[in-house]
Amino acid sequence: MDNTILYWFLLTAAGMMLVAIAAIVYWRRLTHLPYRWFWLGAGLWFVAVAVKVVLAILTHEAVVAYLKERLSYYALLTLGGLYGGLLSSVCEIGLTLLAVLLWRQLGRDADRAIGIGVGAGAFEAFLLGCGMLVGALAAMAGIEGTAPLRQELEHSATSTPVVWLAPIAERIMAILCHACTRALVILGVVHRRPWMVVWGFVIFTYIDAVATAAQLSGKLGSMSVWWIELAILPAALVSISILRWCFAKWASANAPEVQPTAGAIPAV
C-alpha cells in the first residue's frame, strides 16, 4: 500500500485538533470565560479516564467473557454495551457530580458549566488527534510494528466512504455531548433539579454504550463507521437543544449568584 491513505489520515488528525481548538475559541469569544475553567474540565476528564482505564483493565475481560458464555449475540451487544456505557458514565460524569457537590461555584452560571464540558471534550479530541498524527507519521516512516496500523487504515478506507471525515464528525458530536452532560449535572445540582443530573448520566451512558457495542460486534473492520456516527447523532442533536436551553436560562448575564457550600473550595 502506498502512503496516500496515510496522508488522508494526517488530514484527519489535523482536523480533530482544529475542532478541539475551535470549540475552545468559540466558547471563549462568546462568553469570555477564563481559560482556567476549560483546563479544569480537561483535568477532571483526565482523572476520570485514568480511573476508567484501571477499572476496565480489572473488569472488562472477565465481564465480556461471562456475557459471551451466557448470552446470544444481540443480548451481548446490548448488555455489554450498557456495561461499557455505565463504566464511562460512572467515572466521567460521576467525578463531575462529586466535584460540583464539593464546589458549587462550578455551576455559578451556564457559561462556566458548559465551558467545563467543552474543556473535557476538546482535550479528548486534541489528544486523539495527536495520537492519530503520531501513528500516521510512524507508519509513513515504516517504523517496525506499524504494519497492523497500515492494514487497519486500509480496511477502514475500503469499508467506509470518506473515512477521513468520520473521526472529525465524531469529535464534533462528542464535544457537544461532553458539554451537554457536564452542564446538566453541574447546573442540575446547583439549581436542585435532579432530573437534569439523571439525564446527564443517561445521555453519556448511551453514547459510550454505542461505542462499546460496536467494539463487541467484531465488525469494526468490515462495517462503515458512519453507521456508528449515525447512532450517536441523535444524542448530539439533543445536546444542542439542551445547551441552548441551559445558556438561555442560566447565562452569566441573568444567572443568580451561587453561594458556595460550607467547607467548599473557594471560588477562583
Detailed description of the structure:
The chain starts with a helix and ends in an 18-residue tail after the last helix. Helix 7 (194-217) runs antiparallel to helix 8. The protein has helices at 4-31, 35-70, 73-102, 110-140, 147-159, 166-190, 194-217, 225-250. It is built from 8 helices and no strands. The chain has 268 residues and is an all-alpha fold.
Helix content: over 70%
Question: So how many helices?
Answer: 8
Note the main sheet.
Answer: none
Shape: globular
Let me know the average pLDDT: 90
Total strands: the figure is: 0
Task: Please mark out the parts with pLDDT under 50 across 5 or more consecutive residues, or reply none.
Answer: 261-268
Radius of gyration: 20 Å
Strand content: under 5%
What is the CA–CA distance across the termini? 53 Å
**Structural class computed from helices and strand pairing:** mainly alpha
Order of helices and strands: HHHHHHHH
Q: Keywords for this structure?
A:
disordered C terminus, 268 residues, 8 helices, mainly alpha
Write the layout of secondary structure elements.
Layout: H1 4-31, H2 35-70, H3 73-102, H4 110-140, H5 147-159, H6 166-190, H7 194-217, H8 225-250
Helix pairs in contact: 1-4, 1-6, 2-3, 2-4, 3-6, 3-7, 4-6, 6-7, 6-8, 7-8
